[in-house]
Amino acid sequence: MAASERQCRDYLRRHRIPELLQRLGALLLYHRPERPREFLVEALERVKAGRGAEGEYPYLMDEANLAAMFQLLDVVGQGHVTAGQFREALKTLGLSTENLQFGDDANITLDVFKEEV
Hints:
One of its GO terms (molecular function) is calcium ion binding. The chain is mainly alpha-helical.
């Protein structure tokens, strides 16, 4: 791999550009706005405001959606899911599992699930 290509990949990874683009694409497909460009500009403004603690980060799902997903994973109603189930749920949503700090024996509660997703 050429040095310039490696620098480009490092830049994208460092700034998490692929994740941002994937999230924006998911938001577009979920909401299907009539004016997609304006929608994307507004979403990026919310990202900027959310990072500066001035607003709310644009989420694909609200708390009710996350609670329903958690209940689907916690089929026996134990109040927690395994770290493996949690990782698979994140992958299914197209979210990164790279920075998770949970061991394989960890139990993930609904509150932790919501916070992490």
